[in-house]
Structure formats: structure tokens, C-alpha cells
Specification:
With about 240 residues, the chain is an alpha+beta fold. The chain contains four helices and 13 strands.
Amino acid sequence: MLAIIGLGSLFAVLAYTSYSAPLYSGWNAQEVTGQTYQENGQYQNYEPYQPSQNVSSTPITIDQAKTIAQDYIQSLGNPNLGIKEIMEFQYNFYIQVYEKDTGIGAFEMLIWKQAPPYGMIGGGMGMMYGRVVPGVMVEEPGPSMMWNRRYGLVNGGMMGLINQETSMMRISKQQALEVAQVYLNGNFNGATVEQDATQFYGYYTMNFMINGKIAGMLSVNGYTGQVWVHTWHGAFIQEIMMG
């Protein structure tokens, strides 16, 4: 039987490469061997990632991922939360959850299909090490955990609601798209940002395209303009729009 793991058991310390756009200055993350630099200026050790030895020989389908996601959202007991989309990638299924009354993104989740190769999560843009359990619904590492000012891990857990209005963000959705494109111009040859960005409490998440196809995903901090590339997905396969 597939299990649901809470945020506490999933928590992995993260390091990432940040981009500070003009006018939106923020602290710059620093990669340090065996450590990650936090916003409070303190270093914290992480445990090296070990590839899972329990990868199922039977791949999880997108229909199975949909069922797991729906069961999880129902278990939260909050009728205002719904699934906006499910995207299948090489290594995982990405699930975007939103608030039905506001249309604002609530949080982002993953269902791992298999453990990614050692070092793949970093992708040259920062490293995240943690235990990957295929078939289990977990909160996505990165912005959903660390930048989410209402549902994020740093604000008391995914359901530890903190009243942080999105109107407080210094950066608009259009400005976030512009920041993302500037970043892509300098790091991904020929990449263009999709205009359909999702606004969360503290950041925006959007896909980017190369040669007319989805090539990746990134987020822009709504206060500092920092860019966080989701390097843990692998190649895009398909998606289901639900919300």
C-alpha cells in the first residue's frame, strides 16, 4: 500500500544557485561542500544523498499519480484546496495545488517514479540531497518548502497557515516573467519562459520552453527576484490540467 509521508520525515537541507535581478537585490546563496548557506547566515550540514534501493520495477502511471494526489488532498480536510495540474517527468510527477477561492497556488508536491542518479538533482545549479522514496507523495524541495509564506516548511509546515498576502510581494507576475527570461538568456541557449506563471504566497513558478517544447521549470522569489531552477525533474513527458 502506498504511503503518504509528512514534511517532517521528508525535510532535506537545500542549496541553490540564486539570481538577483536588477532592482531586486537579495542575498546570494553559496555552495559549500557538505554544507548549505541559509538565509539567516548560518551553515547547516546535510547528509549525502544515497540512491534508493527500493525502486519498483513497475513504473507508476500518471493515472496512479492522479489517484495518489487526489487521495492526499482529500486527507487534508480542506475543501478549498484542489489540484491544478499534474506533470509527468522522467523522474517524478509534479503536482500543483491551488486555492479554489483565490486561484492562488498553495503548494507544490512530487511523487517520485524512481531515484534520480547521484548528482543529477544539482544539475550544475545547486545541490539537494535527501531520501527519495518512489510512489510516495511528498512536498517538492526548493521554493515550495523554503519560499512559501503561507504553506511552506519554514512557516510551521504545509498546513501551518500563516496569513501572508500575495499583495505584499514587491515583484509582480509580469516582472517575475521578465526576471526569468533574463536568467534563461544567460543560462539556457534558446529558452523562452512560458507566460502562464502560477503565483504562490511568496514566489512564482513557471515552465520554460526550448524549440517549442517544455524543457524545464523555475521559480522567482516575489520579494528578492532570485531564480531557483527545478533541476530534479528530468525530461518532460506529459501533463494533465485539472483546475
